[in-house]
Fold:
Amino acid sequence: MLNFESVAMRYADGTQALGGVSLQVPAGQFCVVLGSSGAGKSTLLRMANGLVKPTRGTVQVEGVRIAADSLARIRPRIGMIHQQFNLVMRSSVADNVLAGALPAMPTWRALLGLFTDEARRKACELVESVGLQEQHLLRRVSELSGGQQQRVGIARAFMLEPPLVLADEPVASLDPQTSHDVLSLLRTQARERGTTVLCSLHQIELACEFADRIVALRHGAVVFDGAPGAFDPQVFDAIYGREPVPVPMPVPVPAVRSGDHAAEPEAALPLHAGALELAQ
Structure:
């Protein structure tokens, strides 16, 4: 489905974002690209739809090389889900989802907003499939929560039933529970349609839960490529250059029984020296 062949990217200021990455993503796979900020994740995804042209190497989607003369054919076959949602906040949910059909429409119809009845039915079905209700269709996107807005973004991405969806940090601005819900929804939608997903993430725990495969980047190079079950502290160190920091367990405070004056709750939690000075 997606083939990166020795792709490298060096920006005009000399920054090397990718240093010769080769990667093949088969059809139907949910592949997560993991890494810290600046590792090259977004650059890799943007190469897949022609937004970034590699300084070296080639990218192919369904066997077609991404180039200036092939973008018009390839882009309708690729859905995009963005970190900041990239929705028109003043427009309705329905209009934002319908915008996902624009790449396949003649320019004059797109400018006039002349969507077919089939496209409108499809938009309604997708809004329902991502867990939104009929009453949401005419609501402004600005009135929705962040999680609801990303659900709109997912519905928009599937308007043309693309065989490939690129999700660039789709849950970076969401809380943990909403992030889990959104990725679960994305995986469900992809599996129902047999869609290939290339998704960049920061969160290791989410990558291990939802990915069929994890590809980890560090300084523009692949340092891990395998199943989530193979991810261990040594892999963490290869990606981030340090061992994972264990999360300290909270120390339970003994309950004070009624009438027991020997143990004061305040004594169990001594003040920090600086806080004590302020209190005095």
Remarks:
- The beta strands are 2-10, 16-25, 30-34, 56-61, 64-65, 78-81, 164-168, 196-201, 213-218, 221-226.
- Residues 244-249, 261-280 have pLDDT under 50 and may be disordered.
- The domain at 2-245 is CATH 3.40.50.300 (Rossmann fold).
